Amino acid sequence: xxxxxxxxxxxxxxxxxxxxxxxxxxxxxxxxxxxxxxxxxxxxxxxxxxxxxxxxxxxxxxxxxxxxxxxxxxxxxxxxxxxxxxxxxxxxxxxxxxxxxxxxxxxxxxxxxxxxxxxxxxxxxxxxxxxxxxxxxxxxxxxxxxxxxxxxxxxxxxxxxxxxxxxxxxxxxxxxxxxxxxxxxxxxxxxxxxxxxxxxxxxxxxxxxxxxxxxxxxxxxxxxxxxxxxxxxxxxxxxxxxxxxxxxxxxxxxxxxxxxxxxxxxxxxxxxxxxxxxxxxxxxxxxxxxxxxxxxxxxxxxxxxxxxxxxxxxxxxxxxxxxxxxxxxxxxxxxxxxxxxxxxxxxxxxxxxxxxxxxxxxxxxxxxxxxxxxxxxxxxxxxxxxxxxxxxxxxxxxxxxxxxxxxxxxxxxxxxxxxxxxxxxxxxxxxxxxxxxxxxxxxxxx
Length: 446
What we know:
Layout: H1 4-8, E1 13-15, E2 54-60, H2 64-78, E3 82-88, H3 91-104, E4 111-115, H4 116-123, H5 147-152, E5 163-175, H6 176-181, H7 186-190, H8 193-207, H9 216-222, H10 246-260, H11 272-279, E6 285-289, H12 291-300, E7 308-311, E8 319-327, H13 337-349, H14 351-361, E9 364-365, H15 388-398, H16 408-425, H17 429-443
Parallel strand pairs: 2-3, 2-4
Antiparallel strand pairs: 1-8, 4-8, 5-6, 5-7, 5-8, 5-9
Helix pairs in contact: 9-10, 16-17
């Protein structure tokens, strides 16, 4: 479970809108009852003689490599003549290796796992196989996946470049004991963002605990709320920067309010101080993916069991924190593409595999059929017996994808730098955002 840390530290928040585009097609494909074993028409043939063994290479990162390995016994029962070799690297090294392989067409795996924070960058080029076209026609299965996750893998031109396997519906985790000591209820945290900050003042006064780990968490959420149709996170459809719009102004203002009132611990996720804040009750809330509840329970702060609850994000916001996809390289070995795609379908459209990954690694299933399992109704002792998975399922259904831009990663760095200047050097917010706007205007069309 701890191997998720390297992966999660690289995850990108996607909120109340998030995507490469937004298209796709209609009803589910036929085949076996779970749809996972319905192979596409042969893509170039198997290239094998009868009785020979085919070897697929799957490139992954923690903990996707563990999920793949755990699935191999069931895979071998279906395909005893197809071996699977798993290549694992840490998350950043993995995506760097995949970038190099796609650009040089050397060392290409048959199947590659991609984290959502990197998917947009990969989809900008032509290195990934378009799964909307024959023989794959993945659009037929669109309705079987959580909508926003499928949209994230779909370009504005309709190409489907990857298949979602897990998602991270956002949640607000909070310490119910600290709220009680401050005389507050869940509604005080969730009705509005301004109310959330006000509640933080009362929590700090009554308990000494910080509202948030870092004020940047407020900015990350709020810039992703209130997007208009066609707007990306940082740029519009004409590549014009949007960072001086009211949503960025509000995000900066509320982040500054958190810092000004000393409501954030000024610690970053996955640091030792962050972990200690949870263990000792020094941090009252954390906005994150639903998977964090599992990590708090198993290794981050197991002694706090029963003191936490989960709620939807404040002010009706719905967010995604991370998500994983499987993809194939366009220039991969054509003799193995049909079986590689069959393996992807096995991992993403097989209900049992999706549930096994959720139960073992807190990998929330992107397959909607897996979300109907009774496992979602079970109470969670760590959350005081709350059946929180049902709320996370609701959140997953209400998240929408927004278009990505090739300069989004650069824009994020610019905005984070300007926010730090506001928080640490008291830079004027309009000036900070205007400076960011000018820099992004110069970079937007490169």
